[in-house]
Design goal:
With 78 residues, this protein is mostly helical. The chain has three helices and no strands. The longest helix has 22 residues.
């Protein structure tokens, strides 16, 4: 990535009074993002990282337990 940035034939330090700062920013951002997309790998994240023993059945039991606990709290308050 450094080599690509070094070989980029753009003089970032010249003060071109005819160009707009927003255009300069967009040009720099687009160049940088293009280079970054070419050189920085993407990492794919696959879902939640639950332990293997935490199965769907256990999750359903835990949800049911929490539901019953909420119902009990409401009944006690009434």
């Amino acid at each position: 990535m450094n080599q690509t940035l070094e070989t980029l034939e753009v003089d970032w330090m010249t003060n071109d009074s005819t160009s707009d700062i927003n255009d300069d920013w967009i040009s720099w951002r687009d160049s940088f993002l293009t280079i970054a997309n070419d050189h920085i790998p993407e990492k794919t994240i696959n879902g939640r990282n639950n332990p293997q023993w935490l199965t769907g059945e256990i999750l359903n039991v835990l949800k049911r337990k929490e539901t019953l606990r909420r119902k009990l709290r409401r009944a006690i308050r009434s």
